[in-house]
Amino acid sequence: MVERDLKEFKCPQQFVQFKLALRSAQSSKQCITFSLNRGESANDIERFLQKNAYSYNFDKQRGLLLVEPLHV
């Protein structure tokens, strides 16, 4: 499993770093866990995951987002 801390980034850099890390994890077919600031909006990230049919679990209270790789 890959882990990526996005707490240091603000939008739009956070979204760009999210997509880069997700692409890397997807190419190696690994799950990835993102650490986000609690209380900060992640609506753009969730919309992207839903639009692209990713399986994910977002614990907003802990600021942890687990994304599973797409199976093609």
Automatic annotation (TrEMBL):
Highest taxon above the source species: Bacteria
Alphabetical list of InterPro entries matching this protein: TusA-like_sf
Record protein name field: Uncharacterized protein
